[in-house]
């Protein structure tokens, strides 16, 4: 039988949200303070270069696992910082980088950090990086 406390209605009023600043738990950057356009362009270019250099590494290179770990950290940081920015969500550069990071991360999570990326997937990722870079240069 259910306890009596579960069957009665609460006697306290629900707490309504206040107009005080919102606290973003688990988010490194509040959306309003995340970045400027210049910062976005610089960090996105860094991520693009890191993706290119990591997926073009030779599979026998002893630094592949460390490079993949560094890429995953950079990708997670980039995504956490920019995915809540409403102004960036419609940008082609954001869309392409996000898609490529998702493909790269998914591959390394599924197959391990030393597994080479298949040629077809690698070509698509590099193409997305190229289009994202062109869009960044245009301010999009």
Automatic annotation (TrEMBL):
Stretches assigned to coiled coil: none
GO biological process assignments: photosystem II assembly; photosystem II repair
Classification via InterPro entries: PSII_Psb27 (IPR025585), PSII_Psb27_sf (IPR038450)
Any Pfam family matching the protein: PSII_Pbs27
GO CC annotation: chloroplast thylakoid lumen; photosystem II
Keyword Hydrolase among record annotations: no
Chief location category: membrane
Localization terms from the record: Membrane; Thylakoid
Keywords, alphabetical: Membrane, Thylakoid
Name of the protein: Photosystem II repair protein PSB27-H1, chloroplastic
Organism annotation: Ananas comosus var. bracteatus
